[in-house]
Automatic annotation (TrEMBL):
Residues 255-284 have a biased composition (Basic and acidic residues). One of its GO terms (biological process) is endosome to lysosome transport. GO terms for cellular component: early endosome. Residues 219-236 have a biased composition (Polar residues). PANTHER family: PLECKSTRIN HOMOLOGY DOMAIN-CONTAINING FAMILY F MEMBER 1 HOMOLOG, PLECKSTRIN HOMOLOGY DOMAIN-CONTAINING FAMILY F MEMBER 2-RELATED. InterPro entries: PH-like_dom_sf, PH_domain, PH_domain-containing_F, PH_Phafin, SOS1_NGEF_PH, Znf_FYVE, Znf_FYVE-rel, Znf_FYVE_PHD. Gene3D superfamilies: Pleckstrin-homology domain (PH domain)/Phosphotyrosine-binding domain (PTB), Zinc/RING finger domain, C3HC4 (zinc finger). Residues 243-254 have a biased composition (Acidic residues). Residues 215-284 are annotated as: Disordered. Residues 152-212 form the FYVE-type domain. This is Pleckstrin homology domain-containing family F member 2. The keyword Zinc-finger applies.
Length: 284
């Protein structure tokens, strides 16, 4: 189905519309062979609270952004190559239902659909795109993925020392290796996690110790040392936390509103082409 839509005029119009909705703040999306498979709103679990995000599924990338004006304007565009993605279904728990994890080496997060049917559609279409990409490229799916961050409101005290109470002064930080919410002293060390960044990232003391032990193991017993490098320890209170950069997509301005069901393209174009062909035949 995707191959048939590559040169479709409708596909070109849709991609152009997505580009126009992001405006100058987004990257160009039109490329040879790229197809817009579907689009819709999903709830993304961000650091501070869940947020509605507009998602666009292409046959090779997943794009999402903040909703400024529904169906008209989006900003803070994020592009995720599907070859790097692994999906993991989440069990329904309390208010969080119909969710799954989107995992990559650099960033992992949870999203939730409005209904079980929408979740099934989203996951099936994404998995199909990933499967097709890996089959064509001959690549293997990634084996390592970034941790999913624990939301701020799920930790009132440090998850490492179990003592420090978070306040305006005692800020929350996230370990980039395990995703736990930790205090400053318990995340005073940094490590280069190659899959996430070439710069040193904040890690909790437990992960730092584990990574350090892994690094000195014999080569045949090492698992992650090739992708990690220790760096200097922060002194207390020094060194900025990049949590704000990771969570920059929390600062949107859209109001809560009802969103339409997601749209997945393919069958509708087949019907459109059939109708057009029938009309031409009838006109002869």
């Amino acid at each position: 189905m995707v191959d048939r839509l590559v040169n479709s005029e409708a596909n070109a119009r849709r991609i152009a519309m997505v580009e126009s909705c992001f405006g100058s703040s987004g990257q160009p999306l039109a490329e040879q062979g790229r197809v817009l498979v579907g689009e819709g709103v999903l709830t993304k679990i961000c650091r501070k609270k869940p947020k509605a995000r507009q998602f666009f599924l292409f046959n090779d990338i997943l794009v999402y952004g903040n909703i400024v004006i529904n169906k008209k304007k989006y900003n803070k565009q994020h592009i995720i190559p599907l070859e790097e993605v692994k999906l993991e279904s989440l069990k329904d728990e309390g208010q969080y239902r119909n969710g799954w994890l989107i995992r990559t080496a650099s960033k992992s997060f949870a999203v939730y659909a409005a209904t079980a049917t929408e979740k099934e559609e989203w996951m099936a279409h994404i998995e199909k795109c990933i499967e097709d990409l890996l089959r064509k490229s001959g690549k293997q799916p990634p084996s390592e993925h970034a941790a999913v961050w624990v939301p701020d409101n799920e930790a009132s005290i440090c998850m490492h020392c179990k003592k420090t109470q978070f306040t305006v002064i005692n800020r929350r930080h996230h370990c980039r290796k395990c995703g736990s919410v930790v205090c400053g002293p318990c995340s005073s060390k940094r490590y280069i996690l190659r899959g996430q960044s070439d710069k040193p990232l904040r890690v909790c003391l437990q992960c730092y110790d584990e990574l350090s032990r892994e690094r000195v193991r014999p080569p045949n017993q090492q698992q992650t040392s090739a992708n990690t490098t220790p760096v200097k320890t922060d002194t207390a209170g020094s060194g900025g936390d990049s949590s704000g950069d990771e969570d920059s997509d929390d600062d949107d301005i859209n109001a809560e509103e009802k969103h339409d069901e997601p749209k997945f393209y393919g069958d509708s174009e087949k019907t459109e082409e059939t109708n057009n062909h029938s009309s031409k035949e009838a006109a002869k």
